[in-house]
Amino acid sequence: MRIQVRRSQKQLIAQNIDMRRLVAILILCASVTAIMASGHGQGSQQSQAQPQAQPSPSPRPAIAQVPPEEAARELNNPRSKWFREAKFGLFIHWGLYAIPAGTWKDKQIPGLGEWIMNRAKIPVKEYELLAKEFNPVKFNADEWAQFAQDAGVKYLTITSKHHDGFAMFRSMVSGYNVENGTPFKRDVIKELAAACAKHGIRFCVYYSQAQDWHEPNGAGNTWDFGPDDKKDFDQYLRDKAVPQVRELLTQYGPIGLIWFDTPRLMNEARASQFTNLVRELQPDTLLNGRLGGKGDYRSTGDNRIPNEVVPGVWEVPATINDTWGFKSYDHNWKSVEDITFKLVDIVSKGGNYLLNVGPTSEGVIPEESVVRLRAVGAWLKPNGQSIYGTSPTAFGAELKGKDWRCTTKPGKYFIHLFQWPNGTFELDGVKSKIKKSYLLVDSKNKLKVNQSGDKVSITLPARAPDKVDSVLVLEY
Ligand code: FHN
User: 125-150 burial by CB neighbour count: b if 16+ within 10 A, else e?
Assistant: First the structure.
């Protein structure tokens, strides 16, 4: 396999900033135009499209590019250091929608599990009765945090309130919450925050700041409350969303990041109410890119992986099947091979992978998700140093295929081999002198390196040490 070595991302940014600025601005304009034209923009106030878990086949970019100086700002932000190093996070979508689990009045409702209220146009008065049934007696925060640790994720982001408006935490602002409005009477966010702290997992919360189908003035519920443009959205922000975010920031210790979503009706002024609150109460907390104002990092579209290295700080939110919230009949689980590849692929392009699980109404993370994520965690144990804290590929030609990927640290290339080559692995265009090479799981056994000019050839053992991804290290 023959490839060209490229300079590092930081060098490129530093040395080519002027030349690239114009190109980047043009790309940015094209990306934004394409996203807005498609009507799917995360920041588009016009977009009423109901999201799908799977990417649509449209050519819109997975993520809007930003100018190089903006990417550099994201990368140099000390607040985002832990996030840049973490690379792998666990998303949890859990709420009342886990009870119907995709079926309403004996009918399977198409679309995402957590969107059932909207898709079936369930009136608030009917939907809110689910709270009286919510009693997830098998929920064990410690087991969830242990699972997150076993899976090798470094942060966990849970829905503290999704679009249905139901808070999974004790709230003085609205009685429509898990502690005051259900037979369960326990604060899920409190228990999970404590368990994550114990297991060394950064605790983060998702909060649907704009859509709230329970509130007359929240965005999204047009079947009970009429069109959004007739609503007093600022009343909803003032009396529910902003005070609830205040509760999240004051009741549960450090919050790694707040994951806002679908910024309908949001604008800079409205977004700044949240930004100011976060900066005032927890200045270290990161803001994601879907608030409706400037965030500390950006998300791709759901399940959208860019085709190339993307400068800056970003994350791919992704489903493990085809829904976020639990659906009893969604069995389209991604394989361990696919998840591992996606993790490495995303990291080699400079991003984080935020992989979702949707627990049941009993408080159980589906076994199919557990088995798969534990397998990824087992791979990460000996191979984690090729993921956590790494930088993107030094090459790039490999991104056209799926045989291998590269992640880097100073003085090291980690070559992830998804196809085990027959005898030798060859690199072309290597400018540095390779000092040694070995398999990450067998670092004592040095492999034979032949370097002639910028061509490098490594002699490999006959068998791959890992059937999914064997990591070859080249030190220079
Ligand atoms: O509408 C939500 C959806 O339910 C889910 O929470 C995803 C996760 O990225 N965000 C929105 C759609 O993009």
Answer: eebbebbeebbbeebebeebbebbbb
